[in-house]
């Protein structure tokens, strides 16, 4: 049966999905129909290659070739100058599958999830108009620093890969509102992510996180934070790493805590610089300072009156930290719920 027989004239959608096709002969499509078609669906067939005449659909804006056996996106795709959305998920694409000039397309939505990419293709990092990029369920081991080039990006989904590190350059995406990094091997979140002022949803479940940076409280528009399946409150919560302070640090702490005056006339300039770098202990009940030696401590912050989130703090000494217990926590161990408005995080998913 001719798959084009039932197509009506004047329809901008050409849907050839789920027809068990292993090839498509576009000769059966009239020139007028090619000109009118803006959306072409070829999903869920058995196509090993894309049709030769694909480039003749000059006004094509949406192309869905998902769930085929594609190992290659042909060069003709780069001639689709009006193409805005390309969905090519669940195929067999890898780093060699995209045409050299793929980055010249004016794509706004690109979905390459469920393929065989081990790294983000450099061509994708040239798509400056891209608003949505999905490369989940691949074999990515890293997020390239060049991701910051995609300054129009609003959605980035990289879940289900092998990523262990979040580059700070990711924070240079001013319009990013959804970031999906679930089901990876991520162990920490860089504090620079607080520059993502548009971020509303952050998906980090099923990683290896043991804590979150305190700076995450600065994400004022964040409404959903997914953390289930991370160690977080396991044994790491009670761990403290503390190197005894050096004699230099002890002397510096004594000078700073007693507010003793100092100047280049009193001590060498390198010691003046050292003293100026003192960090104040965040414990409100402590007036101490620290330089290089500090206690890494997990502090619980209440969100929405329901969840306690472990955030990393640095204290001047073990005496500034009380052990976790079932008793009410001190000011050092927990912040009041009122310090974090409920509407700041509407959903914190730990379970």
Automatic annotation (TrEMBL):
Show the InterPro entries listed in the entry.
Answer: Leu-rich_rpt, Leu-rich_rpt_typical-subtyp, LRR-SigEffector_domain, LRR_dom_sf
Does the record's keyword annotation contain Nuclease? no
Give the UniProt keywords, A-Z: Leucine-rich repeat, Repeat
Q: Which Gene3D superfamilies match?
A: Ribonuclease Inhibitor
Keyword Repeat recorded: yes
Q: What Pfam families is this protein classified in? A: LRR_8 (PF13855)
What's the protein name? Leucine rich repeat containing 58
Q: Which organism is it from?
A: Scleropages formosus
Name of the coding gene: LRRC58
